[in-house]
Amino acid sequence: MEKHPIPIPAAVYDGLETVRRSGLTNMLDRPRVIEIAELWGYDETAAWLRENRRLYAEGIFAGFVTDEKRSARRAKGGA
């Protein structure tokens, strides 16, 4: 089964990347990722994580892409 990156809003992606780059937690620890995102003002990221548990789990292994990048790839004829 081919894995495709999970499309997410750019603001959510930015929050996830900031938490990931900080190295403060394992990204599999979703509750801690939510906590850090909220502490740092990434409220949209925290809300998305609460509402999209399954998509987040899929994205951890398949990757994430912003909605804008996915739309651009489709316009160029990509997946």
Description:
By secondary structure, the chain is mainly alpha-helical. It has one domain (6-75). Helix content is 65%, strand content 8%. It contains 5 helices and 2 strands; from the N terminus they run βααααβα. The protein has helices at residues 10-22, 30-39, 43-51, 53-62, 67-75; strands at 6-8, 64-66. The chain has a two-stranded parallel sheet with strand order 1-2. Helix 1 crosses helix 3 (43-51) and helix 2 (30-39) runs antiparallel to helix 3. The protein is globular, with a radius of gyration of 13 Å.
Which helices and strands, and how do they pair?
Elements: E1 6-8, H1 10-22, H2 30-39, H3 43-51, H4 53-62, E2 64-66, H5 67-75
Parallel strand pairs: 1-2
Q: Helix proportion of residues, in percent?
A: 55-70%
Main sheet specs: 2 strands, parallel
Give start-end ranges of low-pLDDT stretches.
Answer: none
Query: Strand-and-helix sequence, N→C?
Result: EHHHHEH
Query: Tally of extended strands?
Result: 2
Tally the helices: 5
Using only CA atoms, what is the Rg?
Answer: 13 Å
Domains, number: 1
Q: What is the averaged pLDDT score? A: 91
Q: In order across it, which strands form the biggest sheet?
A: 1-2
Question: Regarding quaternary structure, how should these chains be classified?
Answer: single chain
SS strand fraction: 5-15%
**Structural class, please?**
mainly alpha
Overall body shape: globular
> How far apart, in Å, are the first and last alpha carbons?
15 Å
